[in-house]
Write a structure and sequence with these properties.
MULE transposase domain-containing protein, elongated, 135 residues, mainly alpha, two-stranded parallel sheet, 2 strands
């Protein structure tokens, strides 16, 4: 799709692209628009997280207010600088496990694969995008 956009509009060279977390689309955008800043979309991140909650059979538990609030804390990692994601991830994991006895199965991505799977940590950082939008 990115190639088609470039073919139809050869002068199009966006400063930034906001997209979901589909790896094929991300790689295509990077190849076709190497100068563009690629950002992930929080809406799609949350949507995928909720889909994974359903897939692993945690829908009933997710309806429990305390579990739901604690599980959604994972999305807060989208607002920390990329250089501190791992440290903040460990702080959050410890907080949830030690203080609330909440252990999310690794199958929903609450382990290193959640972050490693993104491959490009900058995609996970939305704060830059928010500040740029306000300028």
């Amino acid at each position: 799709m990115m190639e088609l956009i470039k073919e139809v509009w050869s002068l199009f060279n966006p400063a930034s692209i906001n997209m979901d977390f589909e790896q094929a689309a991300i790689q295509s955008a990077i190849l076709v628009f190497p100068e563009s800043q690629i950002s992930g979309c929080l809406f799609h991140l949350v949507k995928n997280f909720k889909k994974k909650i359903r897939e692993v059979g945690l829908t009933t538990r997710y309806r429990e207010p305390e579990f739901s609030v604690r599980a959604r804390m994972i999305m807060s990692l989208a607002f920390v600088p990329p250089a501190t994601i791992w440290d903040n991830f460990e702080l959050l994991r410890t907080y949830l496990l030690d203080n609330h006895k909440i252990s999310l199965p690794s199958s929903i991505g609450f382990d290193e694969t959640m972050l490693v799977g993104l491959r490009i940590p900058v995609l996970f950082f939305l704060l830059d995008t928010l500040f740029q939008a306000q300028k």
